């Protein structure tokens, strides 16, 4: 379980996260939605340990992660992957496996398994600079899975991804969670959040202001709730006029 208590982060006068509280159970896919600049990436980067909060605590299975090394493996996939463009997909993944300390004898097998899983076999020897956005995104997600993380943090994983690749990536996220892992992702694609996530939280003014179980609320109802959080209670009617 991941539990966040009173997390705050500001950039000069810009208060991005403001005593944010949040909890996710192991085995859950949690989607964070919110307007541009509301702090979704900032939150994921703090969870990943890439950015320090000003205040607050992050417990992973009851161990405070802030300032401590967690014994749980956490992988973070940024929204636009910066990959080494002059390596082939396979070379990149092998290189990344060595950085992540994947045992040497397992690297080749893990890499070829992931290349196959993400349908990258025919392009594995091509330089990454020749890859499309979707192919790069698949390499990026594959690289995050190399060390079999316990927690996967995905920043807008499916933005700009075509239907088929989106399907492939979704399947893998679902498969990943079945192995008792946790996924937290951010997205602007509400339909995706509804079909993929178990829970959706709305980030607004530095806090998770509302949370829904997707099996309890329709896509339409969630959309109305989000609109009313940002635009006020009568916004749903205004927008349908
Ligand atoms: N390194 C930084 N220095 C200063 N301000 C920053 C920095 N990183 C983010 N911010 C600011 O923090 C706020 C939240 O940014 P963040 O990238 O977390 O938003 P987001 O919800 O992920 O946005 P989007 O949906 O557009 O990707 C924004 O106002 C942004 O300008």
From TrEMBL:
SMART domains: AAA. Keywords: ATP-binding, Nucleotide-binding, Transport. Residues 2-230 form the ABC transporter domain. It comes from the Bacteria. One of its GO terms (molecular function) is ATP binding. Coiled coil: none annotated. The keyword ATP-binding applies. The keyword RNA-binding does not apply. This is ABC transporter ATP-binding protein. PANTHER family: ABC TRANSPORTER ATP-BINDING PROTEIN ALBC-RELATED.
